[in-house]
Amino acid sequence: MIRYSFIFFILTVLIVSCNVHAGDIDNRLIFEKLNSIENQINETKLQLNQRIDDLRSEFNHRFDDINKRIDDSRTYDIAIIIAILSLMAMILWDRRSALTPLIDQISELKERLDYMWEHFNFGNKKKIITS
Q1: What predicted TM-score, i.e. pTM, was given to this entire model?
Q2: pLDDT tens digits, residue range 60-69?
Q3: Domain residue spans of the chain
């Protein structure tokens, strides 16, 4: 029986001491601690949102820079294509204008040969140059 009363006494002391420690913690302190934790979480959320917004604006700026470079590259490509086409047109025009005097000279030589065959009696005229 002493043994049971001793165990009962120890259990009672433990239960009372637990209640005393729990009673020392005030509800006001719990609410203050919860409020401070909540404020820290909100501050962290704001900082995280700000950082995400900064990253988005940085990415948008980089994308805009890349788009500008692509547009500039297209402009340069078009300018080079136009320059090549104009050079080819100039070469063809020059070739045609360079051949015109040569064609005139060949026509004149043909007329002279025809005249020579007709007036100097070289025999049967062979048609060497055709029109």
Answers
A1: 0.46
A2: 999 999 999 9
A3: 24-92
